[in-house]
Amino acid sequence: MKLVKKWLFPALTCLIVAGAAMLPPLVSQARDVQLLGQVHADLLDADALPAVELPTLLDRMTLYADRFSHTHPVLSFCDYGVTEEDAAFPDQEPLIQATRELLTGADVLPNWIFEEEPLEGEVTERLLLWDPAASGTFQEPAVFWGLKWSYSNKFHGKDLTVYLDAVTGLPIYLWVFDTNISQWLPYDTDHLRTLAERFFGLLGLDIREIDYDATTSEDVQLPLRYSVAGTAMVFDVIRTPTALTIELNPNWRNPAAMDIGSITYDG
User: Fold this and answer.
1) Is the C-alpha dihedral spanning 65, 88, 166, 103 positive or negative?
2) Long-range contacts of the stretch 16-23 (C-beta < 8 A, 24+)
3) Radius of gyration (C-alpha) of the chain in whole angstroms
4) At a CB cut-off of 8 Å and minimum separation 6, what does 67 contact?
5) How far apart (Å, rounded) are the C-alpha atoms in residues 176 and 243?
6) Which of 54, 172, 206, 257 is buried most deeply by CB count within 10 Å?
């Protein structure tokens, strides 16, 4: 009898522990059988998972165009880096040099605008954009880099701002103020159109010039308008006596609200 008592208690303990380990799966399987008529499978085939398509350049351009839109606003966050060693920021000098070479290599800007009187005050800005109406509970932000240069004295002033798509490094916004701009960009529509085509050539998109009502534009402006084929997105290219702007119009979702006449879109 003493021998039985020695092994009976450890054996019962092992059975109780094993039963407790088996109970949750058995209860789960019983519930599945009751509800579904079959036991659920723990393994999920990777091919059965939904495919996630990465945003395209057009997707990111759409977010940028909606940055100031009233009909389809996006969430935005902008910073300049906490420190120079901020891991989220690229090395500033190579980025600035690559952007300069991209624009001058395509003859969008002349080399001497950077060299004749060296631009100062170079700043790198990080812009993050999210679409709150996008499907899904989580989405990576679209990232853009803003580069800004400036130079001024009592006789000459110039400023340059470029926004780059962080994935491709391509410019999607350009603003140049230069009191001597007519030295490299004559004040006429033909030269403006040629420069615009060089800029859009960098993007690799099918972009077409579209009509507008020139009577509504300011007399001091030379405005051109371009559509991105397959979309309703619109670029405005505007030349004033001292400045050049190439930008996505934030009112592209509402053509009636655009500030330079009406458009005819060939979709």
Assistant:
1) positive
2) none
3) 30
4) 74, 76, 129, 250
5) 5
6) 172
Question: Tens digits of per-residue pLDDT, 197-227?
Answer: 999 999 999 999 998 765 555 567 899 999 9
The two structure tokens encoding residue 187: 């004040």
Contact 253, 69 (CB under 8 A): yes
- Contacts of residue 124, Cβ cutoff 8 Å, sequence gap at least 6: 80, 81, 89, 90, 92, 95, 96, 145, 146, 147
- Using CB atoms within 10 Å of the CB of residue 248, give its burial: 0 to 12 exposed, 13 to 18 middle, 19+ buried: buried
Whether the per-residue pLDDT at 29 is higher than 60: the answer is no
CA neighbor of 163 nearest in space, from 116, 95, 218? 95
Please, which residues bridge with residue 253 across strands?
none
Q: Are 232 and 65 spatial neighbours (Cβ–Cβ below 8 Å)?
A: no
Distance CA(22)–CA(7), nearest Å, equals 23
How far is C-alpha 166 from the chain's CA centre?
7
How buried is residue 245: exposed, middle or buried, by Cβ count under 10 Å (0-12/13-18/19+)?
middle
* Mean pLDDT calculated for residue range 38-58: 62
Count the neighbouring beta carbons within 10 Å of the beta carbon of residue 82. 10
Phi, psi dihedrals of residue 149, rounded to the nearest 5°: -125, 160
> What does pTM read for this prediction?
0.74
Cα separation, 64 vs 172, in Å, equals 9
- Assigned token pair, 201: 């050539």
